[in-house]
Design a protein that fits this description.
17 helices, alpha+beta, three-stranded mixed beta sheet, six-stranded mixed beta sheet
Amino acid sequence: MSDPTILAGPSVRRLRRREGLTQAAMASRLGISPSYLNLIERNQRPLSARLVVVLAEQFDFDPRSLRQDEAVGGVDGLRRRLADERFADLAIDRDEIAEWLAAAPQAALAFARLFDASGKDVAAASTDPMDLVRREIERWRNHFADLDAAAEALADELRLSNADIGAALAERLRQKHQLSVRILPADVMPDALRRLDLHARQLQLSEVLDGPSRNFQVAVQLALLEQRDEIAAIANGAQFTDRAAWRLFRRHLAAYFAAALLMPYGRFMRACEATGYDLDLLQRRFGVGFEQLAHRLTTLQRVGQRGLPFFMARIDRAGQYSKRYAGASGTFLLESETSCPLWAAHEAFERAGRTCVQLIEVPDGAGQPSRWLTMAQTVERSGTLGAGTARFAVVLGLEARLAGQLAQARGLSLDPVHAVPIGPGCAQCHRASCLQRALPPRGAALEFDERTRGLTPFSFRG
């Protein structure tokens, strides 16, 4: 097997200068030629694993310094910062950012620190627990391989099938944990949907939960009982200083395991590929709700068996996000605090039970157009006694160039000319002449038009 290699020219050059060595002197200590060291320092040759070991032995060198890109969130972290409206006219693309990070990682880190300290990048500098958890999930690309493998092994052990998912889960609780499942009236559980009563040896579920939600809650309880240590280890690895963030992340991991148990990776991937990711068929085949399915579709990043890179969001009628998972999609659509009213996701509220499919065009991190096929459907969430029912729109999105194989794309033109231009919310959108605009973009100067007497749409200069 060949050595794994990385480009680390700037790090090696800084080390040599710190030691006060010429290229010839350092090359001699590394056992390579000066010309080869020169190529390494200019990122024209990789630094092999063998040379990393020699550097650590010969010099006071920490190999972790080669991962400076992690401190800024990698290429995506820099893209998120450079998506600020102050850089919109520069059209910096992903390749330029990657080259900058490879050639001058310390300079990129300095830029990131200055930008974050300015307070402009709310997402990067936020101390809000939900933002912290979302960033940690994005760092993992919402794929936790160990939890997935454990859930798949348990699913195989239980031989879960569509006909007896609930029975198999309940039997697991009974045999391994001496717990029975009991459905209780809402007035008996006025403030909870799931409750573990160890005195009565019962997992108690509220009657307001439908069948898929009951199965999901039982699977979550199994995650908390059987994967407690693994979940805690992953959550502790995030090194949150906020205990609320730790609890939110732990809850996400338990829900992740539950979804992986109901939709085991291998069987789920085969079903996706066989059906063209048909959302309705997948829901029926695995006995899950649309929101559970949407979550699962953002997690399919197993090495050697990757699925399509979906993103998933949940919005309310006001366009506010209550869930946002970019997965491996790389989308910037979810970076704003509110969604665009031109997005057909909002139409889903008026078309309950139907999937609203739309080809959209949005600016990427460099201000260039990117196209996505999005599919939205409403879901209802029953609360505790007296809380009523809430309705949200759950949206799945996939880059248009990958969407041709989807069942939901059949009969739909994916030609760019048919894409509907939308933006990342008015405050961050610089698209001119939008009749739907509610306010000008941040940082833009207003221009008063005497002909319209200042009526919308707003006129502005970037």
